Amino acid sequence: MIRGVGLAVPEKLLTNSDLEKIVDTTDEWIKTRTGMEVRHIAEEGRDTSDLAAEAVQRALDDAGMTVSDLDAIIVATVTGDMQFPSTACFVQDKLGAKQAAAFDIAAACSGFIYALSIANGLIASGQFRHIAVVGAEILSRITDYEDRATCVLFGDGAGAAIVAPADGSGRGILDTYLRSDGSLHELLYMPGGGTKYPASHKTVDEKYHYIKMEGREVFKYAVTAMGEAAEYILERNGLSGDDVALLIPHQANSRIIEATAKRVKIPPERVFVNIQKYGNTSAASIPIALAEAKQEGRLRPGDLVLLVAFGAGFTWGSALLRF
Question: Is 3.90.1150.10 the CATH number for 172-322?
Answer without folding.
Answer: no
